[in-house]
Design goal:
mainly alpha
């Protein structure tokens, strides 16, 4: 993910589950980044928690 907008789009359109506390928190946080109510870093952490909650395998390594 390169932005909270991309994360929001993924969460709202292609997420493997449609409930869960971490999912809802991440969805709301990613949307709130746009108007400055939530920081990018907070949204990132919540998105990672939603990944874990959904059982999605991920890596935080950054390719260059």
């Amino acid at each position: 993910m390169r932005s909270a907008k991309q994360a929001f789009d993924l969460l709202s359109a292609r997420w493997p589950v449609s409930d869960g506390k971490a999912y809802i928190a991440a969805l709301e946080a990613c949307e709130a980044v746009d108007d400055g109510r939530v920081s990018d870093e907070s949204a990132r952490v919540l998105f990672l928690l939603a990944l874990k909650e959904a059982g999605v395998i991920y890596s935080t390594d950054i390719e260059r």
